[in-house]
Amino acid sequence: MSRPALATLDLAALRANYAYARASHGGKAAAVLKANAYGHGAVECARALEGEADAFAVAFTEEALALRAAGIGQPILVLEGAFGMDDLELAQKNDLWLVVHQEEQLRMLESLRGGARIHAWLKVDSGMHRAGVAPDQARALWQRLNACAQVASITLMTHLASADEPGNPATDRQLAVFEAATDGLPGPRSVANSAGVLGWRGAHRDWARPGIMVYGADPRGTAS
Ligand SMILES: Cc1ncc(COP(=O)(O)O)c(C=O)c1O
Asked: From the centroid of its chain, how far is CA 197?
């Protein structure tokens, strides 16, 4: 017996949601397609957004390779970064951007010789305590990353833990920690996930990283 439940995804709505996220935030937006586009089908969603999205973001290298295999040419940011040197080589060959959220990943980049140069996103843990370098180490790690021959550019990023709670002071604290940790360092910044795009103007920087709102949900609890 087949199950009666069926989910249909309106790809025009997906495009409109992405455009809304990008316009509300300003600057550029990497559409987050991790976890098979939150269960909606990463390749289908990437194809639907191909002409529009500045970049895509996935969690792992394998997800990025599946998009490349499907012919997706946009920049793809790997949010968990490299787990080993093989991931670095795959990033070089497939033009993937890599988050660097721990010193070990920086060491791998320091040991890389030759091949294409990689766009790195240095993730600072401003208070989520899940991944990211400690704020008081960000400056020193940025300097080391900047000295890597195979690093093409550095974007500074952080992830918000409670932006879906309007008025929660933790978000302003995170923004202040991120500012202090990165003050004076050159390069683009990226802070806002969907909740940051929708509810925290102070979190808007050069790049947004909207996920859930691209699929039509408002993380603050109301349907969009
Ligand atoms: C680093 C990072 N940025 C952005 C997002 C997208 O978040 P949201 O779905 O809340 O927009 C995620 C999702 O987990 C993430 O891990």
From this structure: 13
Out of 24, 32, 158, give the residue to mutate to test ligand 1, the one with the largest number of ligand atoms within 8 Å of its CB. Answer: 32
Substitution site in 17, 63, 79 for ligand 1 pocket (most atoms within 8 Å of beta carbon): 79
Three-state secondary structure string covering 142-192? HHHHHCCCCEEEEEEECCCCCCCCCCCHHHHHHHHHHHHHHCCCCCCEECC
In order of start, what are the domains of the chain with their CATH numbers? 23-215 (3.20.20.10)
The pLDDT value given to residue 177: 98
Over its C-alpha atoms, the chain yields an Rg (Å, rounded) of: 17
pLDDT less than 70: residues of the chain: 222-224
> CA-to-CA distance for 27 and 205, rounded, in angstroms?
7
Residues lining ligand 1, Cβ inside 6 A:
32, 79, 159, 193-195, 209-213, 219
